[in-house]
Design brief:
The chain is mainly α. It contains 19 helices and twelve strands. The structure holds one RNA strand of 75 nucleotides.
RNA sequence: GCCGCGAUCGUCAAGUGGUCAUGACGCCGGGUUCUCAUCCCGGAAGCCGGGGUUCGACUCCCCGUCGCGGUACCA
């Protein structure tokens, strides 16, 4: 840097959740600030009274913290700065850069016949009340210097006389944005590409307000859905909180988000946050939109889960095991879970999948996958013999995984079957499913009595139905 | 409509004026394995189209096409 401290900001509207696109924007601002040793400001754009609520603002902060994104200044609330905006608006009016207008939206639309934009009708009417409009230059152009896209030029003739102060005196986003970035001495504006078209208006406002230190911009590529549209609250899963609830780890979420539009110099994809900070350069960000691929998020999350120390995995899994579990809560036993945790950890893509992998341990009777049951037991001619053999062998075998493995292998050999085939009906009878953690460890943890009981039940059920 | 941005496997990324165009996810096949998962090996799959510039363009320029964003007294 050239001696000037970099100052960036993330300025979400408190809509009640943190949008994944917003989270990515926050992350890139944060990465850039940390990389250059700059300052990261959190600013809440709550000029809409309905959104100016402490709980909504707390929610955003909580989610940012969850992702590990901290800020150096703020949160600064725009709702507390209306005086500053009003002063700026008055200055614009006084210097002839803005004028009052009393046209309704319907008036304007009727006059312009569907063409976008305001026609300047009130420019010279000398009104002293109404909405305040910025007098956009009739000629010339404004160039946005963008670190990701290069210089982007906008002709002033294409910029209408936009409103800066509503009839009720409140500031619109463009004014608040210009004033705040000036007051907070923001040097780099890093935000979504959807705001690129609004940038010349902000620049025009700052210029009219006498600003000579324009920031540099970086308009990040949009994050899109499978139809390549900007992620929207209506049709897409956009709340970061929701991913948290679905069992994604913050580190995995953050890592995946970082990969949307950026990549480190080497071909690593999974990398610690320290390395991201060290390598992140804003002008390395791609300009084209990125699809939010849940499959890839799953893969990254699974990798992060597997990398956890077992104790951490257990601790992180607890909320899913204790809150609204698929078994009677009093039947849950931590020691039992800990015994199979390493086996589950290797198989879970999300923490939300954990309960389903261990439910057979805590349920009176396992949840039965009917398809698996039919295939491995009901329609399996050797199932009765295998179940009977298992019952006989397990009755007095030394109860640990190795011994169970041994006697079951012998059982398979007696039936001239591979162990894989022979264990199928046992697994389904005991766990209800055809897939799951390794069988013999599972039986060991379940215990002899409960194992035998389930095997008998399956065998008896068979004889009744046949 | 107008303004703007974008374009490398299905997806996310890398890439150079001359490369067998790289990695990852996903997919397919194989190996390891008590199922599954992990792990290992292998495979299919791409430079939007047309013009230029050049000895030579995926790469640079222009046009087109397509996609997307914006076009509010929302942010």
């Amino acid at each position: 840097m050239t001696g000037v401290t970099v100052r960036v900001r993330f300025s979400p509207a408190p809509t009640g959740y943190l949008h994944v696109g917003g989270a990515r924007t926050a992350l890139f601002n944060w990465l850039y600030a940390r990389h250059v040793g700059g300052t990261f400001i959190l600013r809440i754009e709550d000029t809409d009274p309905a959104l100016s609520r402490d709980d909504l603002i707390d929610g955003i902060q909580r989610t940012m913290r969850w992702l590990g994104i901290d800020w150096d200044e703020g949160p600064i609330r725009q709702s507390r700065r209306s005086e500053e905006y009003r002063a700026a608006a008055e200055q614009l009016f006084r210097t002839g850069h803005a004028y009052f207008c009393d046209c309704t939206r319907e008036d304007v639309q009727a006059r312009t016949k569907g063409d976008a934009g305001y026609d300047g009708r009130c420019r010279e009417r000398g009104l002293t009340a109404g909405a305040l409009r910025f007098r956009s230059p009739d000629e010339g152009e404004t160039v946005v210097h963008d670190l990701i896209r290069g210089d982007v030029t906008f002709e002033h003739t294409a910029i209408e006389d936009f409103v800066v102060l509503r009839t009720d005196g409140s500031a619109v986003f463009l004014l608040a944005n210009a004033v705040d970035d000036m007051d907070m001495a923001v040097t780099h504006v890093i935000r979504g590409e959807d705001l690129l078209a609004a940038t010349p208006k902000v620049l025009l406002l700052r210029d009219a307000l006498g600003d000579t230190e324009m920031p540099v911009f970086a308009h990040l590529p949009l994050i899109v859905n499978e139809k390549r549209q900007k992620l929207s609250k209506r049709r897409d899963d956009v709340a970061v909180e929701e991913y948290r609830e679905r069992g994604y780890l913050p580190e995995a979420m953050r890592n995946y988000l970082a990969l949307l539009g950026w990549s480190p110099a080497d071909d690593r994809e999974i990398l610690p946050i320290e390395d991201m900070v060290a390598e992140f350069e804003i002008d390395d960000v791609k300009a084209s939109p990125a699809f939010f691929d849940l499959k890839k998020l799953d893969a990254i999350n699974a990798e992060y889960i597997r990398a956890l120390p077992v104790a951490t995995f257990v601790r992180e899994s607890l909320p899913w095991l204790e809150t609204d579990p698929p078994w009677p809560p009093e039947r849950f036993d931590l020691a039992t879970f800990e015994a199979v945790a390493p086996l589950v950890q290797e198989r879970a893509r999300t923490l939300a999948e954990v309960p389903g992998m261990v439910d057979f341990l805590f349920l009176e009777q396992p949840v039965v996958d009917q398809v698996a049951w039919d295939r491995a037991i009901t329609r399996n001619p050797t199932a009765p013999a295998l179940l009977a053999g298992a019952i006989a062998s397990y009755r007095d075998v030394h109860w640990d995984a190795a011994a169970l493995h041994g006697v079951t292998t012998e059982l398979a050999e007696r039936h001239d079957l591979k162990l894989a085939k022979a264990q199928a009906p046992i697994r389904v009878a005991v766990t209800g499913r055809s897939v799951g953690p390794p069988l013999f460890e599972s039986l060991h943890v379940l215990g002899r009595e409960r194992t035998l009981e389930r095997l008998r039940r399956a065998k008896d059920g068979l004889s009744f139905s046949s």
